[in-house]
Design brief:
Length: about 240
């Protein structure tokens, strides 16, 4: 649907009206036959038809194009009243800037931001409404720190709330202690496995050193025996030499 023509100030060229809804073009598209439509209008039309609603020429979605630049410029220069005119807004903007103004308009009807409140109120009055809204939240005046809604004042019990908070804290602490315990046990298991592996490696190295030492001792004994044998042979040779 297009913009209600009653909102516009002054004359609006017939070529800037949607051929389907007859309102001023909104987000316009143009057919090859140069008839223009609101995007929503022509897409809805083509769901059930395959021709232009003005001259019945065959068209489809892929043949639609943006509006000619000069027509787009003429459209953007049109002046119109804010949609919140009935609430008191007197602003008149160009069509090009109306969306920006209406997003920030002080007369726009917006919902209360408090959960559970269904009131729609003008943006300029929102702060005043929030100050008295029955769904507003605030901290307990008795000092328990609990956030309450005005509607819950009669049911609020500081002691009960503090007990509940204490139980929650206790449960959370128990969970954290258990998590820390499991983490420490996991680390100890990992370190224990590492130490066992290191011990096994060291034990193997000790056994290897023992084996090497045993071989060395055997070699030393063999050398000593060979040396005695050699000395005896020298002594025997010396005796034979003297006899000769």
């Amino acid at each position: 649907m297009g913009y209600d023509i009653e909102r516009f100030v002054g004359y609006v060229n017939e070529g800037l009206l949607c051929s389907i809804c007859r309102d001023v073009l909104e987000d316009p598209l143009q057919a090859p036959c140069e008839h223009a439509f609101c995007t929503a209008c022509i897409h809805g039309w083509l769901v059930h038809h395959s021709n232009c609603p003005e001259d019945r020429q065959m068209i489809d979605v892929s043949s639609l194009r943006p509006l000619y630049r000069y027509m787009k410029n003429d459209l953007n220069r049109l002046q119109l009243h804010c949609k919140n005119r009935e609430y008191g807004c007197q602003m008149v903007c160009s069509l090009e800037s109306i969306d920006r103004h209406e997003r920030e308009c002080e007369y726009s009807q917006i919902p209360c931001s408090n959960a559970g409140c269904t009131v729609q109120i003008e943006r300029r009055n929102l702060d005043g409404h929030l100050a008295v809204c029955e769904y507003r939240s605030r901290e307990c005046p008795n000092g328990c720190g609990y956030t309450i809604l005005s509607a819950e004042d009669t049911q609020h019990n500081c002691v009960a709330e503090l007990r509940t908070e204490l139980e929650l804290l206790r449960s959370e602490m128990i969970c954290r202690v258990e998590e820390a315990k499991h983490e420490m046990e996991s680390r100890l298991d990992s370190q224990r496995r590492h130490m066992v592996q290191k011990e096994s490696i060291l034990q193997n190295e000790i056994e290897e050193l023992k084996s090497q030492m045993s071989r060395m001792m055997s070699d030393v004994r063999s050398l000593m025996a060979a040396e005695r044998q050699h000395r005896q042979e020298l002594e025997q040779a010396e005796l034979e030499k003297r006899e000769l």
